[in-house]
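ARCHIVE CARD
Drawer: 12
Card no.: 0347
Subject: one protein chain, sequence and derived structure
Cross-reference: see card 0346
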Amino acid sequence: MRSFRYQLVNVFVESDTATFGGNPLCVFENAHGMTDAEMQALAAQFNLSETTFVLPRAGTHPRVRIFTPRYELPFAGHPTVGTSHVLASLAATETGTAPDRLTLGLNAGDIPVTCDVGAWTFTANGHTSRPINASRERLAEAVGLTPADLAGEPRFVSTGAEQLIIPVQSVAVLARAKPVADKLQADFANDAGRYMAYLVARVAPGRFQTRFFFPTASGMTEDPGTGSACANLGGYLLDAGEPAPSQFTVTQGEFINRLNVLQLSLTDERRVRVGGRVLALGAGEIHLP
């Protein structure tokens, strides 16, 4: 019988006492010996938006694989932040000292992560972007809004996972959004053939409120906290001429009673950084034949 330890954490919590806020994540501490099929099956078993599998490598940084319940991802934000917290806590147990900087070897490349004042922050890959291939009218209809509800130009942006960034006029517009799966799939699939929508309302010069929708077997689902989309928002802002350096607070999950608080920054070098606080919930062990 093979045994594999895992930890459960909440990522992008508002504070160290916000036990049931943030976005939940399962992290397998050492997945050597697992097959790809077993990783996928375990991600489906836990049924969280993502589960990560750490593959330690002697003399260098670990490889980390990220699975949703349905497929593997090259990059995702809250798994990057949460896995870094777990790896630092494991190092502290083993050596007595928690590192304040790590590198994770993801399928999208090596991602540096640092810890400052209790928050883990990753530096995203350089971004790419492109316009949508359909009208604003069709996009508005696909997310249950009107063209007048949209603000700015919607674009596909990627720092490792391409997503559709849709600026909207207000939080009231965010509240009315109701994405329609077949309409998004028909006209707004990303470069991997998947369809999703990240709606963004600027509520102050340094603050955004957002919602992220993605498909599951039962229809469109809302994600409580999406670090990759937040990084893509950073790329969108750079393309739109936002000055750098800049810092922003991005909240998500309010409409599903699961507040997430993300910190987004644009550096002097026009790099995008995203981070937040992580709260450990518990740990366990899985036994496989």
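Annotation on reverse: Helices lie at 36-46, 77-95, 136-142, 171-176, 181-187, 227-239. The chain has two domains: 2-123+276-288, 128-270.
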